[in-house]
Amino acid sequence: MKYIQSIVLISLVILVSSISIGQIPKARLLPGSSNQIIWLFNQVNFNACLCNALDTYSLSQIAAFNMYSLNSTCQLILSLPVLSPRIISDIESTLILLHPLTDVPCCSDLSWLLDRIKFASQPSGSVTQPTSISINSNNTLISTMIYEGLFVSFYRNNLSLEGIHPLPSGYKCVTAYYRRGFLFMGCNIPSGLVIFKETDVTTPISQINMPLNGRGVSFARNDTLMFGVSQYENSSIYIYNINWTPNISTSIVQTFTPTSTSSWAINTVNDSFALMTSWDSSTPVYAIKSSSGTNKTWSRAPINATKTGLTEFPGEAVTDSCGRICMVAYGFGIRIFDPSGTILLTNWTLSAGLSNILLLANYELFVTDYDGNSMYHFNPNLQCTR
């Protein structure tokens, strides 16, 4: 059992060490989603509250209580343990802990999860109008593209600049995605997906032709299947079989006609499910699905609850370890939906200029801000078991 070594009190930002059993003045414990709450009234002090509580509940059932002396009430927090506990500042409350708190990450508790992510903000990176985000094969570099401009890389741990890399003369590319030691760039000139070695963007090694303006790329089924997005023309999503040796080669499995004028990003959820977004207002995220991880026929359906407003664009969508859909909406911020995509769970107005999102293991999060010319980094290092 891991005891909490420090707890940040919201707004006061006070560190309290070695919290186990006892009183904390001007503080309140927030119950977890699995805890039962009981209010007791007309309690003259916390001794009276505890005695009355023990008439109904055993000591082993009571995790803690928040005592409000001014109105003679106390809030019992039952059903141990209190997973992923949060203590906040409250001048009207005294917290009495009857058992040590356990700091067990509970990522299914979305409110707690977002608090942990926000408190884990890291230094940001500076980049002009970033339009994609990806991590390299060694998991050491985070890279983006400046629209029709340069390829920019940052060191993952602190977003210090690794390098600004020019493309071949005349190339105008918009997106860049790492895979297996290669970079797949979505370009306007030449039109399509241009492939480079990830350590050298001066010389292309191959090209996958698309009618006009390649954009997002993602992979599935042990990298034998590739999704490619074209912004314009008669098809917006291309599904390819891909071979990597001796040279990269592809063959088309299926295509989808456009649902908007600006198809943009695609992210693989699993071997039978991907999420696709379009850079258009009043547009939902689309689910690209097959019936199994081996079926070669794919379908497309809108996730209607994710439809953006008249002044918003769905930049990119991913899922977290609990299956929730996290959508960056340019013109708003981040919206998080339940795994079915039918219920909006919460909003995070980090910035109205967000364009892309990268969510890695342990909830390490990178987000690009197109209007703010920056890249945000959050690293809570959460190893969740539920």
Portion of residues within helices: under 10%
CATH superfamily of the largest domain: YVTN repeat-like/Quinoprotein amine dehydrogenase
CATH classification, class level of the largest domain = Mainly Beta
Total count of strands: 31
The coarse overall form would be elongated
Strand content: over 45%
CATH topology of the largest domain: Methylamine Dehydrogenase, Chain H
Mean pLDDT: 88
Query: Alpha-carbon distance between the termini?
Result: 16 Å
How many separate structural domains?
2
Largest sheet: 5 strands, antiparallel
What would you report as the Rg, rounded to the nearest angstrom?
25 Å
CATH architecture of the largest domain: 7 Propeller
Model regions low in confidence, pLDDT < 50 over at least 5 residues: 1-18
The side-by-side strand order for the widest beta sheet comes to 3-7-5-6-4
By oligomeric state, this entry counts as single chain
> What structural class should be given to the helix and strand makeup?
mainly beta
Supply the number of helical segments.
Answer: 2
Explain the overall architecture.
The chain folds into 2 domains: about 100 residues, Hepatocyte Growth Factor (3-Layer(bba) Sandwich); about 260 residues, YVTN repeat-like/Quinoprotein amine dehydrogenase (Methylamine Dehydrogenase, Chain H, 7 Propeller). Strand 18 and strand 19 form a beta hairpin. The radius of gyration is 25 Å and the shape is elongated. About 5% of the residues lie in helices and about 50% in strands. The N terminus is likely disordered. It has about 375 residues and is mainly beta.
